[in-house]
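Troubleshooting: if your tokenizer reports a length mismatch, compare your output against this known-good record of 388 residues.
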Amino acid sequence: MDASNPLVSAQRGRRAVAAFFFINGFIVGSWAAQVPSYIQRLGVTEATFGLMVLGFGLGSVCAMPAGGLAMSRFGSRPVVLPLAVCSVVTLPLAVLAPNAVLASLALFAMGAMLGGMDVAMNANAVTVERRLARPIMSSTHGFWSLGGFAGGVGGFVIQAFGPVVHALFVSALTGVLLVAAWRHIVGGDRPEPAVHMRRFAFPTLPTIYVVGLIALICVLPEATMRNWGALFMEKELGVDIGIAGLAFACFAGAMALMRFLGDGIRRRFGAVRTLQTSCLLAGLGMLCAFVAPWPALALACFTLAGLGAANMIPIAFSAAGNHEGMAPSTGMSVVTTMTSIGVLGAPWITGLVAEHTGIAPVFAAVAVMLLVAALLAPVVHRADFRHR
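Known-good structure output:
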């Protein structure tokens, strides 16, 4: 019917890619809620768990450049669809793993599917953003955070019905959403033959790597909260698993709220100023969590950190996808690969620190890194449409 109308198609594509972001975030948030019971069931230490979660990051590191290469040949749609299908079964596989070795392999698969889906759906969102000729990245990422919030409250489901029922429910719900959104994902972003026939090579422009470094730092609050927020609440503040899951839920819920407002904020204040303010706000929240003595105060700090963290990654991705001198998929692949370094290293380092000093000092370290990102922020001016 209206599918031939480019604007209608782009609007439907926006809703479809938003659904994919929700699916990805819902799986990640559901995993975050599983962490305390997961560690208890497998009987592993924080350091061992950090090494296991290393598999999640390693899977992402392997999948993200491969996803960029595939998109340079086929476009984002043929890449994101099969990865999304595979992603919906990864949480049950991880939860059903009977020992640490198989659990590590399942986490590797989860990281690979979700990481590959991440780079592909971000590239698809850039395509939709260009067709609509206005920024949508922050609000689109808002659906990821909304999914993370919904997944985070799954701690109460785990408490009532157990981790296996929770994982199967997550898989079924994301499967239904995937079927509903599948056919509206936009295509047509396949590069010209002269571009995709060249051998893949990482770009030589140094500024794309600065954008990547900013994105690497900006993903640290999310990675820390995903893997350690619930455990921090349970072990160091003494709450039950249902309340512990609220750590990531508060963080992701605040991110969702601010991301839905983020496109308007970005249009008004510009990408650079928005990123600088966001980094400082997120850093303040993480720093306050470091000294929070009560669960309610810690949840408030995580909420503040989520408000700040909300628009950092969307701005970095917009700057990468609109970087001059390279295809959007190339810039996105570089930046998402660099963010996966943070995803890869943070859990392992945090696990080692947590076993000796507790989890709280890691929050202070993240706050310091966010200050560095704020100082590097001028390079993301490419995320502003007026600079194109």
